[in-house]
Structure formats: structure tokens, C-alpha cells
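Re-run requested by the PI after the first attempt was lost when the workstation crashed. Everything re-entered from the original request form. Ligand of interest: manganese (II) ion.
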Amino acid sequence: MNADLHSHSCFSDGALTPSDLILRAQEKGVDLFALTDHDTLGGLALAIETASDIRLPFLTGVEISVSWQDTTLHIVGLGIDHKSQQLIDGLKKTRQGRIERAKKIAESLASAGITGAFDGAMQFVSDPQSISRTHFARFLVETGVCDSTSSVFNRYLVRGRPGYVPMQWASLEEAITWITQSGGVAVIAHPGRYKILPKTMSALLREFQRLGGGGIEVVTSSHGDDQVRRFAHWCKISGLYASRGSDFHAPQESHVELGAVPDLPHHVKPVWEHPRLQL
Ligand code: AMP
Ligand code: MN
Ligand code: MN
Ligand code: MN
């Protein structure tokens, strides 16, 4: 089963419309797809419509930004009810502050000699409330300051560098509650990317499961083989389900194509077999 359960459209920081993304997923051989935009359900109605038109099995999704201890985490929700008022309100609250933060990012970049970043980043945005660091990265690449988005995230927009502005996102408990109370399964996204000690990772995964979290993204474009093994092992010992997704953002930017990530290890339970996700 080629399941790709993590992707972005232009409703957050992806480049394609939900319809183009769904068409591309089918073209690339994806058998089960989820759209998981950052902190918004805005693209889901269109995605559901297109997926149903072309008969591509589809799960609703979202990727919620969370502040936990002093780390930013991403929690993916799969199979959520995109009409859930609690989820809609919670995400609206989470997105609030993105525009203010973007202004501060632009001020910080201006102090480092890079001017016009706010308007420059906004050029790449479809919904202003979803303005993200990715849009700033596109501006910095377009203007020739950096040669790729990944080099942007080494030099700018991250802690200790110009353009870094801390944010207070949702709490872990809020994100998991909004997802599960709307009928979905909460999955911890790309755990290998968090810069935390192994001891802290264990504490995080235990707290996540205690609060009702259902799965771990074991296979994702940013995980190497060691990380796949490590998080598959955690699924095995904890009983959590395992998810798989490309985290695709844009054809020219994403080094991994839709559906083109390794298979899940055979000894884990795929998240699409979770009772709450039965189609
Ligand atoms: P934000 O939610 O505004 O803080 O933006 C976070 C987004 O920036 C992520 O969803 C990624 O799309 C992007 N991002 C963060 N770190 C990197 C990186 N090292 N390389 C490429 N994209 C990144
Ligand atoms: Mn993103
Ligand atoms: Mn993420
Ligand atoms: Mn993502």
C-alpha cells in the first residue's frame, strides 16, 4: 500500500492547490492520501471533492504546531472531522499571531541588511493568516540571498540566527484533544527532527501516548534508516501505530516526491489499520 499521509497545499506552505496536489498524488502512484496543512483545514473541502472525483482514497488531515517544554513539535491529525467547531476554533487561535510574528521576522532580517522581506514573503502566500517561515525562505531564495530553502534554514529563521522569532503555539494536550474529540488519530510528526536528548524523547512519547496520541510518523522524508528503526521499535514496545508520509511541499523544493518514501517496516501496525480510520 503506497500511503502518503503527510503533505501541504497552498492553504499553508505548500505550492500546489489541493486539487493539483491530489491529481499529482494519483499520478505518482499513491493509493491512500492525506492533506495535512499547518494549522488550517481550509484546503480540505476542495481536496475531498477532487479525491472523490478521481476515486483516490483520501483521509482528512491537519498538522498542528505545538509548544512543548522549549521545543516546537508538530502533531498530525488524521481522519479528523473538518467541520468540528472545537478544532476550527483551536486552529484559529493557533494561527493568530502568525502575521505579527512575520512582521517581527522582517524587522529582524532588515537589521541584518535584508529589506522588503514582509511584502516579499507575502507574495508567496495564499492565505495571509498562514504566513510561515517557508514563505520567507522562498523570498530569500528568489532574491538570491540563499541558493536553497534548506540553506536558508541553516543561516536564517532558526534560533540564534537573523529572522528568528519565538512563538507560543498550542499545548500538546490541546492539539491531541482537538484531534481525538473530532474523531481523528493524533500522530507525532517527524520525531527525528526534534533536537532533544533521548531521555527527553522518551518522556515526550510517553506523555503523548498518555494524553491520547495514537501514532508515530516512522517513515518521513527527513528520517534516515536509523531513525526509522528507532521509532519503529518505539511503536513495537508502546503499541502505538506507525505512519508514513512524504511531507511534500513543492515540486522544485521537496527532494522527495509524493509517495516516494520507503515502506514501513513489516513488524509495525500501519496507522491506516487504526479502527478510527477505517474508510
Ligand atoms: P513555521 O510554522 O512558520 O515555523 O514554519 C515551519 C516550516 O518551515 C516547516 O513546516 C517546514 O516546511 C519549514 N522548515 C523548517 N525547517 C526546515 C528545514 N531545515 N528545511 C526546509 N524547510 C524547513
Ligand atoms: Mn511546512
Ligand atoms: Mn512538520
Ligand atoms: Mn509538514
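Saved to the shared folder this time. The chain has a mean pLDDT of 97.
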